[in-house]
Automatic annotation (TrEMBL):
One of its GO terms (molecular function) is hydrolase activity. InterPro entries: Cof, HAD-like_sf, HAD-SF_hydro_IIB, HAD_sf. The keyword Acetylation does not apply. It comes from Parvimonas parva. The keyword Hydrolase applies. It holds the Pfam family Hydrolase_3. Keywords: Hydrolase. This is HAD family hydrolase. Transmembrane segments: none annotated.
Length: 268
C-alpha cells in the first residue's frame, strides 16, 4: 500500500494556467481520505508552496527550492535548510553574467536579481512569490548585506539551448561542489551539493516513518529525476522532458489533462 505521494508543482500538479484544477483537487482529497499523505516537493519558493497548501487546507510536509528547505504548513521555522557553499558562489555568478545571462538569487524569504530588464526574468517573475527585487548588482548586494551563507538557490531563465551551453561552461569544480538541474526546459538551477528532490523525499519519509517503497513520485522536469529514481512507483507526465520519461515506471496524461488525478485514481 502506498502511504505518500510526492508531487512536483509546475508542469505536474499545476495546469498550464499555473493552477490546480478541481479534478486534481478532488483526487488529492480522495487519496488523503484513503490515508495517503500528500507532499509537494518543488523547485518553487516556500511562499508559493505553503500558500497553495494552506488554500487547499492540507497540513503536511513540503520541500521548497528542490529540497533546499523542508518544512510543514504548521511550522513557524523550517525543519531543514541547506545553503550553497559560499566558496565558489561568486564564480557561479561570474560565469552566468559573462555569458550575458541574468542570475536570480533565492534566499529563504527574499529573491533578487540584477536590474537588467531581461525579458526572460520578466516572464518568470510573474509566477514567483514574493516579488523579485531588482538590485544594481547581485554580487554587490550579497556582499553589502552579508548574504554569502544564506543563498539557497540560483536560477537562470532562458531558452533551453542557451542554458545547455551555459551548463557546459561551468567548471568541473562547480559541477562537483553543487547540484545543477533543469526544473523546466527554460529554467536552470544550482543548489547545494547533494541537495535535490530525492534527498528531500528521503528526509520527509524519515520524518514520517514511511519507507521509500511506500511512496509514489510524479514529475515532469530533470530536477524530478532524483525523487523518481528512489520512489516505490515513479510516474512522469506526458508533457515531461524526454529524459525524464526514461526514468519512470509509468507515464500518465499531461498536466493540462489532469494527469496527476488520473494517476491517483489508477494507483490509490
Amino acid at each position: 500500500m502506498y502511504k505518500l505521494i510526492a508531487l512536483d508543482m509546475d508542469g505536474t500538479t499545476f495546469n498550464e494556467e499555473h493552477k490546480i484544477s478541481d479534478v486534481v483537487k478532488d483526487a488529492l482529497f480522495y487519496a488523503m481520505e484513503k490515508g495517503v499523505k500528500i507532499a509537494f516537493i518543488s523547485g518553487r519558493e516556500e511562499f508559493t508552496i505553503k500558500q497553495t497548501l494552506e488554500e487547499l487546507k492540507i497540513d503536511t510536509y513540503y520541500g521548497a527550492l528542490n529540497g533546499s528547505l523542508i518544512s510543514t504548513t504548521y511550522s513557524k521555522v523550517p525543519k531543514f535548510v541547506k545553503s550553497l557553499n559560499k566558496e565558489y558562489l561568486f564564480d557561479i555568478l561570474d560565469t552566468i553574467e559573462k555569458n550575458d545571462l541574468t542570475p536570480i538569487v533565492f534566499l529563504e524569504n527574499l529573491i533578487f536579481t540584477n536590474d537588467s530588464n531581461d525579458e526572460y526574468v520578466e516572464i518568470i517573475s510573474k509566477f514567483i512569490n514574493p516579488k523579485i527585487i531588482r538590485v544594481k548588482s547581485v554580487k554587490e548586494y550579497i556582499l553589502e548585506n552579508n548574504l554569502e551563507e544564506k543563498v539557497l538557490k540560483i536560477g537562470i531563465c532562458q531558452e533551453y539551448d542557451v542554458l545547455k551551453i551555459l551548463e557546459e561552461k561551468f567548471s568541473d569544480t562547480i559541477k562537483s561542489e553543487y547540484t545543477l538541474a533543469f526544473s523546466l526546459p527554460f529554467f536552470f538551477e544550482l543548489m547545494a551539493k547533494d541537495t535535490d528532490k530525492g534527498s528531500c523525499l528521503r528526509e520527509i519519509c524519515r520524518l514520517n516513518d514511511i519507507e521509500l517503497s511506500e511512496t509514489i513520485a510524479i514529475g515532469d522536469g530533470e530536477n524530478d529525476i532524483p525523487m523518481l529514481n528512489i520512489s516505490g512507483l515513479s510516474i512522469a507526465m506526458s508533457n515531461a522532458m524526454e529524459n525524464v520519461k526514461k526514468n519512470v515506471d509509468y507515464i500518465t496524461d499531461t498536466n493540462k489533462n489532469d494527469g496527476v488525478a488520473k494517476s491517483i485514481r489508477k494507483f490509490i
